[in-house]
Amino acid sequence: MSIRATSWLAWSLAALCVVLFLVAVVLHMATLPVRHPSSWGTGGKSTPFWAILPFLPFPIVGALIASRRPGNPIGWICLAAGITWMLGMVSGSYVLYGLRMANPGSVPYPAAVGSLSEYLPPTAILLGTFLILLFPDGRLPSSRWRPVAWLCGAVIATNLVVGILVPGPLSEVRNVRNPFGLEGQRWLADANETIGLLFPLCLLASASSVLLRYLRAGEEVREQIKWLAFAASVVALGVSGVVIHGTFFSSGAAGSTYPLLGSLLEDSITLSFGGVPVAIGFAVLKYRLYDIDILINRTLVYGSLTIMLATVYLGGVTATQALFQTFTGQGTFLSSL
């Protein structure tokens, strides 16, 4: 295939993903009245911003890489991950619209299309293991890593097959069962849970390949790997914030003392995933726009300092409220002020 044809294919797939993104946002907003409360993040009207938009850079950066480096699979994997995620988001809203809002029979195959949302998003995340394994030149560090690549591929394929056949209700419409599920085969549900346990194993094995590549690589490849490390450090800081919030500001069965803060932290983690394809694009295309060492250091220093200050502030507010309540028995307006 010529360079021109390859470039046209890559940007056509990116355009398709943009269209799917717009459809996903429209369908999500249309189905807000019939949605279950979000178990992650703020939910509601903000969901397209933190759950759909962060994955739009994947196909755009993928098309940019694939059009300029068609022999590097990194670009095509980014495109596949973006399209898979957007299809999952569209199908999840489509089943809600078809079964709870539209007239019966007016929307074709809502349950069948909605079943895609059960296994496509996890597949998109699993594709990220190949991004890490093949980063930055599109090749494995050595032939010894082929079993890891085969394991990741087997988990992706098994997740698709079992996800299609597992019986049970759809997560978006819980009174509708998977139309392709094999009823009575409960072992499929157990197999689905077992596959989920392999996700962290695949991610950790892939991450170790990057570490080994960094130790053995020359200066140029190390600079490329630092871009991915920078994006990963942002995600890690967000995860640390959620862990700190859940550990120190949880009030048992009542939930978090500051639920809005916890939801915002969860939103920030999902948003930070959008930086991963951007960092990969900079690294693969070798755009030296910034001093990556300074960026990483500042991210770690200022991010850690921000989390520490927020922890001290919230801890001070909680302690002051407790003291006022203990000694005055009155409201907490003055203590909060």
Architecture overview:
By secondary structure, this protein is an all-alpha fold. The chain has two domains: 1-216, no CATH class; 219-337, no CATH class. 72% of the residues lie in helices and 0% in strands. The protein is built from 13 helices and no strands. Helix 6 packs parallel to helix 8. The longest helix is centred in the last third of the chain and has 37 residues, at 292-328. The termini are far apart.
Uncertain stretches: 287-296
**What characterizes the major β-sheet?**
none
Secondary-structure-based class equals: mainly alpha
Discrete helix count = 13
Q: What is the string of helix and strand elements?
A: HHHHHHHHHHHHH
Shape category = globular
Percent helix, as a range, is over 70%
Q: What value does the Rg take, in angstroms?
A: 23 Å
DSSP strand count: 0
Number of domains: 2
